[in-house]
């Protein structure tokens, strides 16, 4: 029999055909590789969250090989001399072993912790980007909801992870969690004894948190992130308005090859930065805190940054205890309001904001173009108000340290926090609003008179004027229309007092579909386009 010659060059095509004949993947794969993504630095924030999550998974799996999730008492006999001979839980002893005796263990622990901090920070900044640019509007409300859930599940991931080493700090955090659960009226004691299997701390909480931390929560996160990215893919990414970009298309680069290669590179950068931080900067040195003992609590015990706002809200709460005289009587301790009710309100507000805004603006159309924060002053101002609220609570979470370092009375810090929490957010709202209107005014000036060139000319009559260069009209980049909001002219006319008062803060006219301000980048010459079908029906 004649043997067929082996043709190496034809192998890839042949393999591809063989796979496609069996699984019919060529068409969906081509669609995937041809997907167009718009380019802007702020779209990388979601990717930082994604990449740091991947690092969390990788380092977390490594730690799981060596961590022992048990509260059985052991006598430490590892290489960290100051704690040798100390009775402690197996969990704490294994964390010390990971830090001192497992090869590469300390860098993995530190990378895990740094990536957790980066993950939460990236989520928050990504969420702010989505908020301030209006990317959550129809049709992307579902993705906003999934995103909000991701934040809160990430929060739980961080808290359960922080509790695992069972050192002095993590035990203090668990103690606070048990007090928060106990503060819930009626069901509080039942919830606490169910979670801790009896009295705090019990003997089971670390192994329960371990299952939650390495299995349930990561599983939930992977599922939610998959749906989140699936929706970004299905609904297509928003883009900044600009010449050639409309509500019905996406202008950018195809997934393959440039976009995919860029993303691969960016992952390496994020991984590299986390590895450097894990290698160079110490984080959570549990050996200094000692094993957890319920009666040992040190000052300056701080949680990770994303949990600190709850610590702060607890510190600011006045000691108002409510007694409800039904039956034997119920007590609602002050702790209930800042740690259960406040986060509950924040969860609800974060979940439903897109719907509240759409209702308020009576805007039920689909939006695929982003808005500049200055063009929607009320939203930008609300966002700044929320940030101010959060920052004050977070700083208050460290008010004992601030009081100590700056020699301020702790009581004065608490009162400053209380007053600041009520006064500063509205001030932030007002200032942001005025700044947005000022920036709009500046945009209008640029459109009317062109860009300042810095060239001063003397006119024949002796006056000096600055030469303004008109914005390009038509030409390569097309017209740059300005459709921002307009501050009303006749604010004080009798009979229009309402609009006049509102007009001081609010622009009256609704924004046009695509506010385009000067300075938007021209369309890149090799940009690709993809059309988006409108899903709007009756109410547009
Ligand atoms: C684990 C956390 C998260 C990951 C890994 C993640 C990842 C991403 C990625 C990669 C994108 C596309 C690129 C970009 O626009 O940045 C995206 C888009 C989006 N994300 Fe997230 N995200 C997370 C959390 C959140 C949160 C907390 C929110 C809001 C509450 C949110 C809301 C959105 C929305 C609405 C889009 C569509 C944006 C658009 O088309 O302009 N995400 N996300
Ligand atoms: C979003 C996901 C995650 C977050 C935010 C997170 C956060 C944390 C934090 C802050 C710690 C304390 C680290 C320290 O000791 O300094 C920790 C510990 C730990 N995590 Fe995670 N983690 C995540 C996912 C995972 C995954 C997917 C696994 C395993 C599959 C894992 C396994 C562990 C283990 C075994 C420990 C205890 C070891 C130790 O503290 O040294 N984690 N995690």
Automatic annotation (TrEMBL):
EC category: translocase
Transmembrane segments: 41-67, 113-132, 144-164, 209-233, 264-283, 335-355, 376-395, 415-433
Region described as Disordered: 513-540
Coiled-coil boundaries: none
Domain of life, source organism: Bacteria
Residue span(s) of domain Cytochrome b/b6 N-terminal region profile: 15-241
Compositional bias annotation for Basic and acidic residues: 523-540
PROSITE patterns documented for this protein: CYTB_NTER
Cofactor: heme
Catalytic function, reaction form: a quinol + 2 Fe(III)-[cytochrome c](out) = a quinone + 2 Fe(II)-[cytochrome c](out) + 2 H(+)(out)
Enzyme Commission number(s): 7.1.1.8
Alphabetical UniProt keywords: Membrane, Transmembrane, Transmembrane helix
InterPro entries membership: Cyt_b/b6_N, Cytb/b6-like_sf, Di-haem_cyt_TM
PANTHER family listed in its UniProt record: CYTOCHROME B
Protein name (Swiss-Prot/TrEMBL): Cytochrome bc1 complex cytochrome b subunit
Source organism (scientific name): Micromonospora gifhornensis
Lineage per the UniProt record: Bacteria, Bacillati, Actinomycetota, Actinomycetes, Micromonosporales
């Amino acid at each position: 029999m004649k043997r067929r010659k082996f043709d190496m060059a034809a192998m890839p095509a042949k393999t591809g055909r063989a796979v496609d004949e069996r699984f019919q993947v060529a068409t969906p794969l081509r669609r995937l590789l041809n997907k167009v993504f718009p380019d802007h630095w702020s779209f990388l924030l979601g990717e930082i969250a994604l990449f740091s999550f991947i690092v969390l998974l990788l380092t977390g799996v490594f730690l799981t090989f060596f961590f022992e999730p048990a509260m059985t008492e052991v006598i430490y006999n590892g290489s960290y001399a100051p704690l040798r001979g100390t009775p402690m839980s197996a969990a704490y002893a294994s964390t010390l072993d990971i830090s001192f005796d497992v090869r590469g263990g300390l860098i993995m622990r530190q990378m895990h912790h740094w990536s957790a901090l980066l993950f939460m920070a990236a989520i928050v900044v990504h969420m702010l980007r989505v908020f301030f640019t209006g990317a959550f509007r129809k049709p992307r409300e579902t993705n906003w909801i999934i995103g909000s859930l991701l934040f809160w599940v990430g929060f739980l991931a961080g808290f359960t992870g922080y509790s695992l080493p069972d050192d002095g700090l993590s035990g203090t955090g668990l103690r606070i969690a048990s007090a928060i659960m106990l503060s819930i009226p009626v069901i509080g004691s039942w919830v606490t004894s169910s979670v801790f299997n009896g009295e705090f701390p019990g003997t089971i909480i670390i192994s329960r948190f371990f299952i939650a931390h390495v299995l349930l929560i990561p599983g939930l996160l992977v599922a939610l992130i998959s749906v989140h990215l699936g929706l970004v893919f299905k609904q297509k990414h928003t883009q900044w308005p600009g010449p050639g970009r409309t509500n019905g298309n996406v202008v950018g680069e195809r997934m393959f090859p440039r976009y995919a290669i860029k993303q691969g590179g960016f992952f390496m950068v994020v991984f590299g930065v986390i590895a450097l931080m894990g290698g160079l900067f110490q984080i959570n040195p549990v050996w200094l805190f000692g094993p957890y003992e319920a009666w040992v609590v040190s000052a300056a015990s701080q949680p990770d940054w994303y949990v600190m706002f709850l610590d702060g809200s607890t510190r600011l709460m006045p000691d108002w205890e409510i007694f409800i005289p039904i039956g034997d009587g119920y007590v609602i301790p002050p702790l209930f309001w800042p740690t259960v009710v406040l986060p509950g309100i924040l969860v609800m507000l974060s979940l439903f904001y897109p719907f509240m805004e759409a209702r308020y603006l009576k805007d039920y159309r689909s939006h695929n173009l982003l808005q500049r924060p200055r063009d929607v002053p009320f939203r930008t101002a609300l966002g700044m108000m929320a940030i101010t609220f959060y920052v004050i609570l977070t700083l208050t979470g460290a008010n004992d340290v601030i009081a100590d370092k700056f020699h301020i009375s702790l009581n004065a810090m608490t009162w400053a926090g209380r007053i600041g929490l009520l006064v500063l957010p509205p001030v932030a709202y007002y200032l942001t609003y005025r700044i947005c209107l000022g920036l709009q005014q500046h945009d209008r000036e640029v459109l009317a008179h062109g860009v300042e060139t810095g060239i001063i000319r003397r006119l024949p009559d002796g006056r000096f004027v600055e030469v303004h260069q008109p914005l390009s009209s038509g030409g390569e980049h097309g017209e740059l229309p300005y459709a921002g909001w307009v501050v009303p002219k006749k604010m004080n006319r009798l009979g229009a007092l309402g609009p006049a008062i509102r007009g001081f803060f609010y622009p009256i006219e609704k924004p046009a579909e695509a506010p385009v301000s000067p300075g938007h980048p021209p369309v890149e010459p090799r940009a690709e386009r993809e059309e988006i079908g409108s899903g709007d029906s009756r109410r547009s």
